[in-house]
Task: structure prediction
Amino acid sequence: MNTKLFISIVLLSATTFFSCQTNTKNKQMTIDKTSVPAEKLDSLISVMTLDEKLSLIHASSSFTSGGVSRLGIPEIVMSDGPHGVRHEHGRGWYALEDADDKATYLPVGICLSSTWNKALGYDYGVVLGSEAKERGKNVILGPGVNIIRSPLNGRNFEYLSEDPFHAAAMAVGYVKGVQDQGTAACVKHFAANNQETDRHNIDAIVSKRALHEIYFPAFKAAVQDGGAWSIMGAYNKVNGQYTTHHEYLNNVVLKGEWGFDGVVISDWGSVKDTREALLFGTDIEMGTELLKSFSNPDYNDFYLAKHAKKMIEDGTIDESVIDEKVKRVLTLMYRSTALGNHSPGKRNVPEHQQLALKVAQEGLVLLKNDGLLPLDKKAIKTLAVIGHNATRLFAERGGSSQVKPLYEITPLEGIQKLVGDQVEIIFAEGYEPYYDESLFRGYASEVASQSRDNKKSTDLAKTANAKLLQEAIEVARSADAVIFVGGWIHGHDGMPWGEGTYDAEARDKLNLKLLFGQEELIQEINKVNKKTAVVLMGGSNVEMKNWLPETPAYLHAWYPGMEGGTAIAQVLFGDINPSGKLPVTFANSHEDYPSHAVGEFPGNKTVQYTEDIYVGYRYFDSKNIEVVFPFGFGLSYTNFDFSGLKLTQKDKKVFVECTLTNTGNRAGAEVAQVYVHQKVASVDRPVKELKGFEKVTLNPGESTTISIALDESAFSFYHPEKLVWILEPGLFEISVGSASNNLPLKGTVELTQ
Ligand code: BGC
Result:
């Protein structure tokens, strides 16, 4: 065929194909997904100019990457974030006033993973995907699946777990849920992005074994089992190279070993080198200039714009490198709402709010109960609700994950609604949060350079506000019972971007000490009222030794989303039987954790992951170190019994079967957790590793058979010298129970090959 004719046919079909596409929210797309085979993409790429191709692989505004209007190819529209669709930015960075951008504020990632309910992970993804679609977004920047290595990381609330299997299991449902709506999930931040201090430059020095066994599995599962269409490269380096353009991470592992055919999107400003970005896996560069020339970015100045063009034109890099990226980008567009045929989305509908409630109900973790809970509203005339967090709003805080919610039920509102007129509630604020830079680290330079109202109140530092303390003690003394609501905060009123302190992006905590005089406050309340339930918010634990022994009940509530107050009240008063389990170990001090006791945190330029694969309970249990609340732990108002372990081998799998019985007198849910240990191995292996779990709900007296299949990955390890996964024949102990420290069923299997 004559070349000119061929090009015009391709152009015609491309224009017809793309012209029926719009990026307008709620518009039914007219093109059948199956009508665009890969070879059409090749034809399309063959008629694009170099400039057009380049426009597809870098940002065109704060949250879009470029399109090609000549060919009817729209921009890709992206949005944070992991627990709700973020407010509108327009093409700039600042929130648009008066935009119609309220969205469902879901419980944060760590609360979702505390449910240990994989089906809820999927439903959560559906809400996000649907709301993103309704808002005209093609990519949602979540889930955040980085392993929780230290309790001090300011972004732990966005992440899922200290355990790779658990994080992977929860991430897969989330990704599928989002993408079944036609929205691309962007799984972040690949990889070993485990701190905020010096986040743009820190170099994580970590072994290949730890990468494969601990830091990669959630990404691998999101790609291979969840089918993720995009991955976000991280800011940090790993073993000397920036992760966003890391030859081993992106080319060898992600796109090579795992067969990832999606798009690697940079974190905002994480591309640092044109050649590396071209060669080592970055497909779309976002955010770069926003950090340098914030108000007037020149998108042509991006690494993957004019600098890449120069390298192609002077022959340093072959244009096929760009073509490969463009093909990935078009594939994502075609799979998603950018170009694919998908149904319209929904936003702020009751079913999404119900899902937010359900995740909170199942994600709250009851850690201590000396019989005080559930509270009986008929037996209480006066209830003291004490603590600033009982009335604080969290949705629009914490950094890029912030959400503008339609509403947010605070704990005080939830409790008021539940008890109605039957109980008199007296509220006392008890303590006052304040902003003190000396109380956290890693204050990122991009934030520091902005003008801000930094109400530094060192005069209040580390002590209680005496007046509020006294008021609270009097209120507690006069009440029949007390609910104290405190813990961490994210955000400080008056900070730019609604970012803030403590549990927030771009900073890490200094230690786990309860702030703002809360420790003294809880101690004083406990002295005057023996019926005190403590509810703590936060993406991590706090030091507990000085207040927990005297406290009859403790519920950890994370940041439980727009219906969090409702769920907290329902759990405290027994309308809901708690079933959340910790996805991280709660030790007393940060110094107890392996990243601090053995490895380094936050390091200085480099951070040594000397603890290697011994993260979280893998370390505590292998070294016999006592913790306050172990991984997988969480109480219920009923009791469960595990019995009858049966291990059978068939078709290269081990089937773990047992009976789970609700032996108490109310319905409740329990998580059967399966841990594996290789008895004799040629390398060091942890005494237990989670390899399966299932959550079931049972009526009083009811029993069910749990059956969990373990494939060879459950028994394998990544060989530190051979650099491959290996299954060594031998004896493996299998333990089953309700928490990593409560595994009543034990058996052994022998694997021969
Ligand atoms: C964060 C990402 C986020 C991006 C866009 C970055 O600073 O690390 O998680 O998705 O900004 O807001």
About this structure: The pocket of beta-D-glucopyranose is lined by residues 80-81, 141, 188, 267-268, 400 (CB under 6 Å). The domain at 640-751 is CATH 2.60.40.10 (Immunoglobulin-like). The chain has three domains: 49-335, 364-582, 640-751.
